[in-house]
Design brief:
With 149 residues, the chain is mainly alpha-helical. The protein has helices at 11-30, 39-68, 75-92, 95-116, 126-148. The protein has five helices and no strands. The relative contact order is 0.19.
């Protein structure tokens, strides 16, 4: 099955993507709030959200491979589960290290998307993916730095 070449993402996708960054930004900033006393809960919330997003990013590849039917091979299915497994491992680490791991994982997801989206004719979505990953990754790094200060 051949997919049509995707044009730029629709406006609603940009809005939903931007809205999805709100928890990243708010929780990252909360790490820097003086004397909040809730660093553990805040870190857990940020890491859990980051892990959920990483799992979502892997699932996209599973869905695209399903759409492509036999032409995709095993690679997209294997990659489709890797972000979930790696994110789960990040949640088992001490909070600062887990957030650092999630920032790296989000970057790795983008690198895979940079390679695979053109195969699926979805390269028009890459600018949005880059922006979202930049903010999400920086939020995880800011959260980790807030824990280590």
């Amino acid at each position: 099955m051949t997919a049509p070449v995707a044009t730029a993402p629709p406006a609603w996708a940009n809005w939903l993507g931007a809205g999805g960054l709100i928890p990243f930004v708010v929780l990252a900033l909360a790490h820097w709030w003086p004397a909040s006393g809730q660093q553990g809960a805040i870190s857990h919330a940020l890491a859990s959200y980051g892990a959920t997003i990483a799992s979502f990013l892997g699932a996209i590849h599973w869905g695209l491979a399903m759409r492509d039917l036999p032409g995709a091979g095993a690679g997209p299915y294997l990659w489709g589960v890797m972000p979930s497994l790696l994110a789960w491992l990040a949640l088992l680490l001490p909070p600062a290290w887990g957030l650092l791991g999630l920032a790296l994982l989000l970057g790795l997801c983008l690198l895979v998307d940079e390679r695979r989206y053109p195969y699926y004719k979805l390269q028009a979505w890459l600018p949005l993916r880059r922006r979202l990953t930049l903010v999400a990754g920086l939020a995880c790094l800011a959260g980790a730095a807030g824990l280590l200060r």
